[in-house]
User: Which sequence fits this backbone?
């Protein structure tokens, strides 16, 4: 591989001694240097190959084929949420790791309600989950437009604790005395 189709200063060389009919080239297998650090965004590179048969005879070089690297790195679609272990119906705030992109949040499993005037295209949506098992993913798109989509993340929303109302003991005493007074008033 080289930045010039003449291959005057190749960046990647790798000799494979296999008797196989096909081979998957791992780009970290560079016999000369760490060429990956020499790649630039928005640049055209050329590649070509030749093969050696089982008799030790080399073929001619293939034609040179170009490829162009992207204009810049693709946006990152990672995200987190708080609280990490919400209860059903509690507002969960999602926080993407990438800024200044367009966001599209998708709940692929479970039942949800967006809260606080946020929605699926909000940067930091506020979502109430109404089911215990939920899955959500995020697609981010930059201005080029390059996009990246996260894997589904599972979010478990526990059942909320039961609500109770504490009644002070004095109320019970008043009710008992009132019942006793009503009983004796009947005589």
Assistant:
């Amino acid at each position: 591989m080289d930045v010039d189709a003449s291959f005057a200063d190749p960046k990647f060389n790798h000799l494979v001694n296999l008797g196989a009919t096909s081979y998957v080239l791992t780009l970290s297998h560079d016999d000369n240097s760490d060429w990956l650090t020499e790649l630039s965004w928005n640049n055209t590179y050329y590649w070509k190959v030749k093969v050696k048969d089982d008799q030790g005879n080399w073929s001619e070089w293939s034609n040179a084929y170009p490829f162009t690297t992207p204009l810049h790195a693709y946006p990152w679609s990672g995200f987190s949420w708080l609280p990490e272990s919400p209860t059903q119906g509690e507002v969960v705030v999602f926080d993407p790791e990438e800024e200044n992109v367009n966001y599209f949040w998708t709940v692929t499993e479970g039942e949800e309600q967006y809260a606080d005037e946020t929605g699926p295209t909000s940067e930091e949506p506020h979502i109430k989950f109404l089911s215990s098992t939920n899955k959500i993913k995020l697609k981010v798109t930059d201005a080029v437009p390059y996009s990246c989509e996260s894997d589904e993340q599972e979010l478990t929303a526990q059942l909320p604790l039961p609500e109770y109302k504490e009644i002070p003991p004095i109320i019970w005493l008043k009710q008992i005395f009132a019942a006793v007074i009503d009983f004796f008033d009947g005589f």
Summary: The chain has two domains: 1-69, 79-156. The chain has a mean pLDDT of 86. The chain has one helix and ten strands.
